[in-house]
């Protein structure tokens, strides 16, 4: 976990209050793009839970949202919010890193999900496991896609997919990128 102004990124994010704005912490233009194309009834999988879980299940009316989380504190918060809101269309899983977390998606058949979001830990392994699980025409979203450690997995598993990059231009986040890939046939 990196640091930002001496505070862990997770702690800074929680302190910022962004979680309570009801949207995932992606580049803003990527959120707008996704909101314009995600349809009610989509099946979704995500690594990393929180505001994205609520956004998918409540605001975007996904039929199913499967979330993997490695942080027990964050898992408890997301679980409490889902229960408080009476959300029914979700499955929230807690798993340690190093196997079950990255591999959980493998229990689903190929071409099962309309949308997969990779915004948790061990993203390169998650990308590798997710590619076959996205339906033709479906989407894979990777936040912080500008990071060097993800480039080999992107090249190996997503090179043939349609790609759309959204790059932050302002504040302390200039250069931060969220990428949306659409799986071609």
Describe what you observe in this structure:
There is one protein chain. With 185 residues, this protein is an alpha/beta fold. The protein is 32% helix and 26% strand. Strand 3 (43-47), helix 3 and strand 4 (64-69) form a beta-alpha-beta unit. The longest helix is centred in the middle third of the chain and has 14 residues, at 72-85. The termini are far apart. Residues 1-20 have low confidence and may be disordered.
Question: Which terms summarize this structure?
Answer:
185 residues; alpha/beta; 32% helix; globular; 7 helices; two-stranded antiparallel sheet
Rg, rounded, reads: 15 Å
Give the neighbour order of strands across the main sheet: 5-4-3-6-7-9-8
Order of helices and strands: EEHHEHEHEHEHEHEE
What is CATH's topology name? Rossmann fold
Report the principal-axis shape: globular
Q: What structural class do helix, strand and pairing data support?
A: alpha/beta
CATH hierarchy class name: Alpha Beta
Terminal CA distance? 36 Å
Q: Uncertain regions: pLDDT < 50 for 5+ in a row? A: 1-20
Query: Counting H and I runs of at least 4 residues, what is the number of helices?
Result: 7
The protein's oligomeric status is single chain
Q: Report the CATH superfamily.
A: Vaccinia Virus protein VP39
What is the tally of beta strands? Answer: 9
Total number of distinct structural domains: 1
CATH architecture: 3-Layer(aba) Sandwich
